[in-house]
Structures are given as C-alpha cells and as structure tokens.
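Question thread 4412

I'm putting together a teaching handout and wanted feedback from people who do this every day. The idea is simple: show students a protein as raw sequence, then show them the structure tokens that encode its fold, then repeat with a second protein so they can compare. Below is the first pair exactly as I plan to print it.
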Amino acid sequence: MNKRSKSIGIIIVIIIVILGIIWLTGKSPAAPSQPAVQNPLSQVTSSSTAPLPVSETTKVSGSFSQYQNAELGFSVQYPNSWEKDEAGTGVQFIMPIDQTQVSTVAKLEADVTVIPGKCAFPPVTTIQDRGVLNVGNSVLNMISMANNVQGRSYFNRMYSLQKGSECYFFIFSFISLSPDSKGLTGSNLTQAQNNNKAIESTSDAAFTTLVKSFTFVAPPAGEEETTAAPKK
C-alpha cells in the first residue's frame, strides 16, 4: 500500500471516530434543566408587606363617606364616587374621570400619608404657589407645582402637618396627556383644553374639602396589664 492510500485510510478512520463521538453525544441523556433564578427582592417584598392599619369606613350621607384610621390617628371625609385603596402608611383615593367628556386627563388621585420624622416638601424648582390652610386648631403648610414633561402636564398640590414626631402629608395629583396622543385638533382640541382646566379645578377643590375634613383620632386603647397578665 502506498503512502497516498495509507493517508486516505487514516482520514477515513478519523472521520468514523468523530461521527461516532457525535452520535454518542446525541444519545446521552440531557442535563437536568436548572430552575429559573428569581429576584430575591421580589420575595422579600411579598413576604414583608406591612399589614393594613386598623381602619373603618362609614357612609355619612348620600354623597360622602368617612374614612377613619385609628392606628395612624386620623379621619377624613371623601365623595362616595372615589375609590379607596389602603396601604400601611395611609390611604389613597382614585377620583373617577368622566369618559364622556372630551379631555386628555389620565390621572386624578388624592393621598393621605403618615411618615415618621419632620415634614419636608420634596426639592422642586417649579413651585407655583405657597401658603397655609387652617383646619380646626391646626395650620397646614401648602405648596402647588405645575410642570410639562414629554408632552404630559402635571399638577400637584401638597399639604403637610406636623404632630409630634410624625408628619401628615396630603397630596393631590393631576396628569393630562398630550392632545396628539388622542389626535385632537381644532375645536376638539380647544374643548379638551377647557375641560382639562375645569376637571383640574373641580378635583383640586374636592381634594381641599377632604383636607378640611381632617381630624385627629385617638389610637385604640390597650388592655390593662393587670388583666392581660396570665393568671396562675
């Protein structure tokens, strides 16, 4: 056998070996799939959700209900048409948006939040107005802000009230979209702009009415230690 034949034979053997390895590899059992790695933060968040404070909602008239939170120490009245959503630090009210009106309003919201520490408004540069509001024997500080970002219009009114080591925040949020997002032009655009202003003004006034209804509530009384201690 000449050298050329030997070389061809060696190449054929190598090819057969490679094909055998590939075939065996394909027949080998697949490695068990690894479970997806979950974000540990999501687990912490879901397992450490603060329990809702002790609260009570009472309908006081055909138009208004009263929300009372004994644990956070306050009570407010709000229109029955608002949607209430409680959290561990306060309560949020979603105001309904009239879809029959031509407008670009996307969000109407009122929040009452209780946080520890000194009251301090967020550092902003677009303060529109600043003042105070007398509610009973309390004096609340107030600022309002307006801004336009990426075609959206934002308006916020914030009140703060310090009591001891806790701060009570009241926040009204109004967001309207760009008219282009709804294809509004001509008379429809003018009507939407006018309706936006009217909705903002009406909702802001309703929010201020909520703030004026604010009262402090005594926390739930604890049980006497003598009666709570186990008896022998």
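The second pair follows. I'd like the answer to focus on this one:
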Amino acid sequence: MIPAAHAPPSPLYARFSRRFRGILVDWMIAMAVIFGGLSVAIAVGNDNFSRALGFGAMLGLLLYEPVLVSATGGTLGHSFNNLRVVDQQSGGNVSFLKACARVVIKGLLGWFSFVVLAATRRNQAIHDLLTRSTVQIRDAAKARPGQYITERVELSDPGLPSRLRRAAIIGVYLLLLLVVFEAVTILLVMAGITSQRCIESNNCSAGERMVSLNAGVALVILMPAVITLGWKGKLLGARRA
C-alpha cells in the first residue's frame, strides 16, 4: 500500500472554459496559417506554387492536432493553457490513431460534443468518452481552482436511478426540447418575425439571422443543462432516491 504522503496526486480535469481558451488559440493559429498562405500565394502569383502551398497548408492543418497530441500530449492551444490530453488506460499520451479519432469525432459533432461535460465524472466530452481519454491540467502548481475539477464521485451514488433509466429520461426530455424548438420556429414564422425562406434555404435577413442565432444558442445551452440534471438524478422521472 502506498503511504498517504507518497500517493500520486489526483488528476485535475480541465473545465470547459479552459478548454475553450485552448480551442481559440488553435483556431487563431489555423487562421494565421490560412491567411498567411493566401498572402504568400498572391504575392508569388504562380499557380503550381499556389497549389503546392495550399496542399501543404491543408495537410499541416489536418495533422496538426493528431501529431502534437500523440507526441507531446497536446496542441499549442493545450500547452499555452496548461492542458494535456491523457489516455485513460495508460496514463500517458494517446496514440496517433486515437488522436485522429478525436479530431474526426469533434469535426462531426462540433460544439455538441461538449454538451455532456458536466454529466461525466471526469468532465469528458463525447470525443473524450469514445476514445477513452481525458483533458487534464498539465502542471498543477500553475493552475487555479476555477480552472479544473476533481472526479465527481457523487455520480456513483447508489441512490441514483440506473444508468439506463437516466439515459432514457434524458432522451425523452431532449426529444421534448426539440419539439418545443420546432414549435417556437413555427410560431416565429407565423408571427412574421422570420420567414419560411430563411428556414428552408437559409436565405435570411440580418434580423432573421440574429433570431436564428439566439434560438440556436438557447438550444445549445438547454441541452447540456438537461443532460447534466438528468444524469445527476434531478429530473422528474429519474430523481435521486
């Protein structure tokens, strides 16, 4: 048995706010590569060079995250924000294939991958769960309390309904949420606030785009709230005993 004084420190799992900052850094790097490449291509004015440069930039952006995550534990965005992607099984860096899978899943799900964060014990997004990885604080000495959580042991409380029951109730609530969202959309069209043209072909005025954006943001906020409350046993139909 390891003495308490020499026990390994508990992992510190990154909050969404910290991960979001890392994403912003990586996004800015990607934009710099794209616009820098375009500027160079325009300045050179050679089609063959431009195609080669474009292919190289695209390949670099595609491999940027998988290579850095598997080799160093994180992208530049992760490193600048004191974060590290950790393989749940080995405790080290994830493999290159797992890093590729994370990128693909994130690309397919977008921000919706993060809706389950608060309903997981280790603050994991869907792409973390599917690849059995976590995002942790790299250096605990440099972290502040608001940047991380420890494992949510309350989610293993025996008083909680079964996982299947909680998942089923969450599914029902999410379905109702989508029905309400669709009903609100219809009411907005009937009231003349937005048009059928905007809904069907995305041909929207500035005002209509603002309404659609606000509705989308509300949906993205409500979905993780439903998932979190349901998984913690706080929704009617699947409450903690």
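Top answer:
Good format. For the second protein you could add a caption like this: The radius of gyration is 22 Å. The first helix runs from residue 16 to 44.
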